[in-house]
Amino acid sequence: MKKEPFILAIESSCDDTSAAIIKGDRVLSNIVSTQDVHKEFGGVVPELASRAHQKNIIPTVDVALKEAKITKSDLDAIAFTRGPGLLGSLLVGVSFAKSLAMALNKPMIEVNHMEAHILAHLINDGSPIPEFPFLCLTVSGGHTQLVVVKSPLDMEVIGETIDDAAGEAFDKISKIMELPYPGGPLIDKYAKKGNPDAYKFPHPKVGELEFSFSGLKTSVLRFLQKEVRQNENFIEEHLYDICASVQKTIVDILINKIKIASKKTGITRIAIAGGVSANSELRKRLLENTYGWQVFIPAFQFCTDNAGMIAIAGYYKFKKEIFVDQSVVADARLRI
Fold first, then answer.
1. What is the DSSP string of 76-119?
2. Where in the chain is the domain with CATH 3.30.420.40?
């Protein structure tokens, strides 16, 4: 019987440096080093992110190996995020993976960051694993997509945002309200104490499977500007209700698009992935299961950017011997 491979995975697409070790489809370690340097700027500063990755990547990989109780010589392959993401950040991970693979004489596996978010559902951690085909809503700070997943290596994007992503909308609206970065989790936290029907915000008029969140951001901005002119303490006094109303609007938009996609494709196995899949209201609405769907949500540690999801994507490519050579380069705009 052929032994399951040990794969080291590297994720450095944005502001989290992460390394993971997988054996077969089981994640043995999944280490994430978060960069706090961006908080004072209210958003990710690409140059600072790249520098922090250079500082963090070696110790992060070292901890991942130690937690998995293996050494570099035990590795069978190196997987890494090729894109999409911030080019400077990606370059650090790609360059490190190429150097380590050359030093160890091990094969390299390039991974699409968005495909990895989806394939996090296939990690063998005791969570239910969806059968193929399934429909996945990927929602993050940079992307909002509806994807038909036919196999680990066969996916089709059937709908996506034409402007801002859902996570970007959360963060930009939180910035309007002068909440600390990252604001998305704070809106989620404050929304639990507010009335989601306190204020009504419009849904975008776009194609059936298209998303748009820039109009919502503008609508919230104008609403708050008008209210603050009448009461300069309006945001502070009504923060919970504003957050609950904004969150309900975004989640309503996402759920409605899933309903349309499920009806058009006939697929009732519904998965969510990406950083915004950690949003408690989105999870709650899906798990209420009033639509006759089978719902799949990955463990929290595999929702935000992490190398565990890169590892599982790498594992399925390893099984098919889909490797790349030293000529591979980072691609900030890589698509599914």
1. -EEEEEEESS-HHHHHHHHHHHHHHHHHHT--EEEEEHHHHHHH
2. 6-120+303-319, 131-297
